[in-house]
Amino acid sequence: MDIDRISYIFGSFARRRQSQEVVFSSKRKSVDTSKIWHERSKSSPLNTKRSLQSPRGKPAIGSPIEEAKFRCPLCKNPYFEPRVLPCLHSFCLRCLEDLEKNNFATWNETELNGTKANNVQPRKTTFATLGDPNHASEDRPKRAMCCPTCGNLGEIPNGGVRHLTPNYSIQHQMVLATLNSKSTHLLCDLCVTDVAATSRCMDCAISFCTECEQLHLRQKSSAIHSVLSLEAAREKGITKIRKQVMCMVHPELELALFCSTCYQVICTECALLTHRAHMCESVSKVAKSHIVSLRMAANKAKALVEKSAMDTSVLSTTSKRIEADCAKIQCEVERFIEDYIRSIEEHKSNLLEQIRQLREEKMQQVVEEKLKLQKKIRDARDIAYFLDDLLSDGSDVEVLSFIKPIIEKIEGCDNLEPSPELKYSDSIQFLPEESVKDTKSSRNIYGVLTTQNISAEHCRINTKDLENLRVGKKVNVRLETKDSKEHPLERGGETVTAEIRHREAGVSRSLIVNVDDNRDGTYGVSFIPDVAAKLALIIKVNGEHIQGSPFPITVRSLKPHHGTFHCCSFCSSAGSKEATCGCEGKMPGGYKGCGHGHEGHPGRRHWSCCGNVVEHSECGRSRSNSHYQFTL
């Protein structure tokens, strides 16, 4: 595992100059060079002659070589200075520099040379990327890089990929994994010479040799610290390292301020120079509000992952339903077609072809929805995992360093809102009783496929047919059925129901309403009102109200009856021969009115004035006609 010994320093202590290696070369020879040595900064091992071997014991964190999350997705090697793209995916700096070299060969050479010239000064850490004035410059052209993992374009700082924010979480975990590895030999962090460390202070996160350990425990401020041998510390698990992010422009200053204008973490010198008119606050103050929102975003992202996974399962079930439905329809079609002779084989082929096309169309829709959900799962999982690592291990500075890309990532993921509820429309139907139109066969061929699904809210009647209603007069209403796109249905077979209700409270009379299927997508609704009243006509299709239902109607009786509702004039007049009836029935023997069983009698009770057999109906004759009225 080759890890750059300069790039992974977290800024705990100053490095010794390379010239010191010559002075103390004799002491280095006393150390076994076949082992992996760790620099006193407690951050990363020195360059080694062989790869890091997996520990024999049980370290608190596994070897970075064994864990996939410590390996670059491009080179498959352990991360070397991992940098985070705006899409929150991490790659080695060397891999990103290779991509940058291949993708941006046409960049302005003057700009590149100027950037290199500004970066020649030595620095203590590679984490100082946000305080670089070149990073905040708005005069330079925008450049973007396509992420090798997700394919999204991300803006690259003007200084190149080296100015991308390091992945602090991965670096910390790799350092902790190295510290906990038994094959890593640590050097004393306090000695000027390369002296092997034998113990570690769990409170200060410092490794000591034997002498420095005694001096550390003699001091009042550290006398009660927990100082363990390296073996005991590794057995317990080293979980703490010194985290200190220094400014790249001003290496002697720590990043301690957050510029809300630029969304950057800066040092005090940068605040005075390049961020003078900007709103700058202390990191600890700003971090509190942002960490709460980021933690909520992480929880929301996790919930979205679970919801999207469930939706994906629903889509899989929907696919099976579509296949099952289409297979069922196909079986019905085949059974129906087999009853015919060769003249309908062409019709059979046409039906199967229609089913195939419908299946392809619907399956294509499911595939597209599944791809969208899978992308949403990947994005939400990336956000959740990245924020988990960042919020669990990152300092305030490190958390705030990713505010801008995280917000942009969340916005690109529809603010982590779950997808709307997925619905499957059972719009494929086989209608075996419908005749095939425009067929070449002389036979009546039945059985058609339809993708039209009736929509009750789009079905309508002509309300003019419900105007000027009279008692006893038949009312005919024509119902037109349509689908959700308001296309008329050209078939019948739907369940259409109709009923009449009184609008007055407490009235529970019923009235017979007839519904006739015309088999062409229209239905006839008819009834005869028997009373003058305010009524409501309710029409439903498949249990749902049609457009405008219930319809208020008013039934009037403009010509009231002036006679008697009787069985016959003989009975109602007590046998009077002069009594007449509007039914025009007459009894023999000189009677002018009707009688039971005689010619002209309607066979039921009726009005003597007009002969209407409906009790609550409109009179068919005017008052000018002379009729005998007999009142008991």
Please, how many helices? 14
Uncertain residue ranges: 1-65, 105-139
What is the terminal-to-terminal distance? Answer: 120 Å
**Amount of beta strand:** 15-25%
Number of domains: 4
Average pLDDT metric: 76
**Over the alpha carbons, how many angstroms does the gyration radius reach?**
45 Å
Based on helices, strands and strand pairing, what is the structural class? alpha+beta
Number of strands: 25
Helix content: 25-40%
In words, what does this structure look like?
- The chain has 632 residues and is an alpha+beta fold.
- The protein has 4 domains: 20-236, no CATH class; 291-416, no CATH class; 456-556, Immunoglobulin-like (Sandwich); 564-632, no CATH class.
- Helices cover 31% and strands 15% of the residues.
- It has helices at residues 20-23, 25-29, 93-103, 109-118, 133-136, 168-180, 210-218, 230-236, 268-273, 283-338, 345-393, 396-400, 403-412, 569-572, and strands at 36-38, 83-84, 90-91, 143-146, 153-156, 184-186, 199-201, 206-208, 227-229, 257-259, 264-266, 280-282, 429-435, 446-450, 460-461, 469-470, 475-480, 496-502, 513-517, 522-527, 534-541, 544-545, 551-556, 565-566, 606-607.
- The strands form 9 sheets. Strands 16, 18, 21, 22 and 23 form a 5-stranded mixed sheet that branches. A 4-stranded antiparallel sheet has the order 15-17-20-19, with no helix packed on it.
- Strand 10 (257-259) and strand 11 (264-266) form a beta hairpin.
- Helix 10 (283-338) packs antiparallel against helix 11 (345-393).
- It is elongated.
- The N and C termini lie far apart (120 Å).
- Residues 1-65 and 105-139 have low confidence and may be disordered.
